[in-house]
Write a structure and sequence with these properties.
The complex is a heterodimer.
Chain A (H helix, E strand, L loop, with lengths): L4 E3 L2 E4 L5 E6 L6 E7 L6 E7 L2 E5 L6 E5 L5 E5 L8 E8 L9 E2 L3 E5 L1
Parallel strand pairs in A: 2-11
Antiparallel strand pairs in A: 1-3, 3-8, 4-5, 4-9, 5-6, 7-8, 9-10, 9-11
Chain B lengths: L3 E3 L2 E5 L4 E6 L4 E9 L6 E7 L4 E4 L2 E6 L4 E6 L8 E9 L6 E2 L3 E6 L1
Parallel strand pairs in B: 2-11
Antiparallel strand pairs in B: 1-3, 3-8, 4-5, 4-9, 6-7, 7-8, 9-10, 9-11
The chains are: A mainly beta, B mainly beta.
Chain lengths: ~110, ~110
């Protein structure tokens, strides 16, 4: 059973560019959450998608946007990249809000902004 | 607000026990626990819902004291495979989104 799949695994972008990260959730999961993890820190919540709508959003600027498709897969878009956006971006999927089986995380996309 | 985890780091020998604590300033609905090995995805260990329950997962168990807004993760007879960074994720009323602490690094030596 495939878990959460993220692509690409690594990405290098120039300041000011735009980036799109992709996530396929675990089979049977309908909710996708995106987290940013800086080195040595815990994951920070960006937003969560359910039924193709943004259900909740963390404390991130509007440069961060997302989308969920009918097959539950999701994209994270970041515009006008800043050096501080360099981090590991984790996608997590869950069923029923994750209050029973928790979240299943992907291995992440390592974004480096130069 | 981010929960506070303690200690920041633990170094053990195989077979020794460890306790990792997670405290929040908010009233909690539930607490998630995850383990992340270097370069890998965080892996779900368990979730505790309010009610002061204790859950077990192999030799890893956890408790949740909702009055103190705290949870503790207990690792008994540690194995080399237990090495990694442990994160607690706290869920407060009105949101089902876990807020993660900064993590506790656990190193188990032979």
């Amino acid at each position: 059973d495939a878990g959460v799949t993220q692509s690409p695994t690594h990405l290098i972008k120039t300041r000011g560019q735009q980036v799109t990260l992709r996530c396929s959730p675990k089979s049977g999961h309908d909710t996708v959450s995106w987290y940013q993890q800086a080195l040595g820190q815990g994951p920070q919540f960006i937003f969560q998608y359910y039924e193709e709508e943004e259900r909740q959003r963390g404390n991130f600027p509007d440069r961060f946007s997302g989308h969920q498709f009918p097959n539950y897969s999701s994209e994270l878009n970041v515009n006008a990249l800043l050096l501080g956006d360099s981090a590991l971006y984790l996608c997590a999927s869950s069923a029923s809000g994750g209050q029973i089986g928790g979240y299943t995380f992907g291995s992440g996309t390592r974004l480096t902004v130069v | 607000q981010q929960p506070v985890q303690s200690p920041q780091a633990v170094i053990l020998r195989e077979g020794e026990d460890a306790v990792i604590n997670c405290s929040s300033s908010k009233a909690l609905y539930s607490v998630h626990w995850y383990r992340q090995k270097h370069g890998e995805a965080p892996v779900f260990l368990m979730i505790l819902l309010k009610g002061g329950e204790q859950k077990g997962h192999e030799k890893i168990s956890a408790s949740f004291n909702e009055k103190k807004q705290q949870s503790s993760l207990y690792l008994t007879a540690s194995q080399l495979s237990y090495s990694g960074t442990y994160f607690c994720g706290t869920v407060s009323g009105g949101s089902y989104i876990p807020t993660f602490g900064r993590g506790t690094s656990l190193i188990v030596h032979p």
